[in-house]
Amino acid sequence: MEFSPSRSLLSWLYGLLWIVTLFLKTMCPETLMKEISTALLLNILNFCQLSSVPLQILFYLNGVYYIFYFLATLLMIIYKSQVFSYPDNFLALDLALLFIMAILEAVRLYLGTKGNLTEEEASLGVSLVITVGSAILSVYFLVWETYVLKADVIINAILLVTYGLEAILQIIAIAAFVN
User: Fold this and answer.
1) pLDDT number for residue 48
2) Of 48, 51, 62, 139, whose CA is between 20 and 30 Å from 14?
């Protein structure tokens, strides 16, 4: 059996609850004692949350980074359309995909945050599926866009790394929620 700090802390809290319950039995009327011990037990059970703090931090950081990513990509598309001979149909496609990606990102981050904080595997699973779609769109802007600048490569590589880390943490969180 491996040592887990959270399990030993939980055992300590149960012991403390037992001591408090004994004390309350000797000092309080029975109805008051039941209410207090029930409240203490509920607080201890709420202590065992399965939400992933690293995943939540990554969702927040990715939300902030995506605002930068969106603006930088939009400005680079405008720059490329002015400096290079950018075919109009590809310009419209790139802009449409960028805005679709922004909508997907907002939905993905909302569902991921909601699923993580409420410990709902369904919301987190949908967010994971949308993460795959967003990663495919990021690969489009990294590889298949009409003109790819070094700045495109850098910002898309960072975005893909965060998507990969989020996907791993989402899978771990979903596994914890199911168990």
Assistant:
1) 58
2) 51
